Amino acid sequence: MSAMFKISLPDGSVREVAPGTTPADIAAAIGPGLAKAAIAARVDGELRDITRPFEGDATLALVTARDEKDALELARHDFAHVLAEAVQNLFPGTQITFGPATEDGFYYDFAPAERPFTDEDLPAIEAEMRAIIARNEPLVREVWTREDLIAKWRAQGETFKAEWAAELPGDEELTVYRSGDWLDMCRGPHLASTGKLDPQAFKLTRVSGAYWRGDQKNAMLSRIYGTGWLNKKQLDQHLVRLEEAAKRDHRKIGQEMDLFHLQSEAQGSVFWHPKGFVLWRQLEAYMRRRLDGAGYQEVKTPQLMDARQWEQSGHWGKYRENMFVVPDEIPNAEEEGPILSGQAELMALKPMNCPAHILIFRQGIKSYRDLPIRMAEFGCCHRNEPHGALHGIMRVRQFTQDDAHIFVREDQLIDEIRDFCDLLDSVYRDLGFEKYAIKLALRPEKRFGSDEMWDRSEQTLRDAVAAAGRATEEFGWEELPGEGAFYAPKLEFHLTDAIGRTWQVGTIQSDTVLPERLDASYVGEDGERHRPVMLHRAILGTFERFIGILIEHHAGRFPLWLAPVQAVAATIVSDADDYAQLVVAKLQAAGIRAETDTRNEKINYKVREHSLAKVPALLVVGKREAEEGTVAIRRLGSEGQQILPLDEAIALLRTEATPPDLR
Fold first, then answer.
1. pLDDT, tens digit, 9 for 90 and up, residues 211-252
2. Catalytic residues
3. Among 309, 344, 363, 589, which residue is least crowded by beta carbons within 10 Å?
């Protein structure tokens, strides 16, 4: 008789089961309600199929729909597989490649036999997916040998799958999941059958092009995107959010408010218009005041630096594909011959500011008494993002970071990180964000530094967040294995916007690798040289992306202190033109960004136009207001108006227009 396996449950109880027993069997033994509700299992912490047999003694936690994160990941992965099966049913000869779950859904990349797919194909594919779900086909996990699987894919004409199977690590177990006669190569896990999906809880959203393995040198594929949920209610709520997000799209509002534009002559770089740059300057001035108040020293560093510097810092080896590399030579101006010789030394536009800040730190001898040194820079950086990855002002090639690096002794780490958390919290609330989550991104597989260094750095960040009172569910505290930078673990700060979306913006990283590589040191109390710890930190991330987030969060209706145009004096009749000019002159003298609108248009037309431009306060003036020295204030989004003497109206607006840190 085979030895029994001991399975430990969350309540502390232990069940002895025979080999071949599955988590589904244990769920059924506990009770019919759990047997029906359980959709997967965590075995020794690993998410697995509920029908996969135990392989030895293990801990077991059954997963139900209440474990929403795991449940959504499973459902979206299954929707991707059902999508692939549906496409191959409808379009014979189509090759399958990859189909992962995403943050709010799934996608799958296909190599069509005849033509690229279009949005017109989606209704038929959705119908076929629902038919597959209705058949309730079991999703069966199978382990294949590499040779058999490659042969299978080649026999089916699946060249992409065969290529991928041949390149997977030799010691990796190759698994497929079968749904009837259809199969796909996948690590899993999956739900027990297609019928576990709600056929009304998904929607295919769009089709786009994508290169095989993300390389533009490879074949162009058709990518079909979908959104998938646990039930129709969740889907409907998501579709409402998408509709609201479309209304808030920063590209649309940016055009309506005349803030910026982008064009092909400068891929991934923003043309800021006067009104948009007013918004930028207000945000920058606010951040500069907050940094000054927190003891930061502002610096400015070069855009171009020698490749040898990037080699020494480690960025050349780890990050070169994202850098703009520039030969250090004068181009050939003659018509004959190549423009560049190909023999010059190389330089690179900086993708980040940290190495340059260490070079400033190294100027002169630093004492332990000098630390902490807080070095800030609104640094313009460049990263060579693929054209297809660019998105409005959210994902660009040229950007400005609200960057800073803090050089500290080991004994100062906790206090500095805690103080940063407090500063960040205050800034986010000033900018209208009441909710954010804190995540700890842990060591990646490819990294610099020893395990002891990573252990120490990760624990320091944990302790600092706890000291700040924020390692709690209220702040969404979570640890993310493998998500750290190659040189340091980091805290990530994820904002929640007005319609419930999350944006990762702020970060702080505790780094001992870069000071070592670039030979940063200070003289300790013992008279010996010591390495400082370098804290890389940002609150906004980049100005471009954060302004895009601000636009969408506020739907362009900025608080008065941030609004590019804070007030417009609009006339009802031409007799009030001179008075409107006087009103605006007094507003501007009070520091309020104001304009006049004396066009020969009806007042309702002016109100609509300035509402579209998101002007917070419209001061309507006619003959009566001119005679009485008053204004009628109409607030953005309000039908009513408030009649006030001009001086009182100016005082009111001036108070509202004061930045929150100056109130």
1. 998 888 899 999 999 999 999 999 999 999 889 999 999 999
2. 354, 383, 401, 403, 405, 490, 536
3. 363
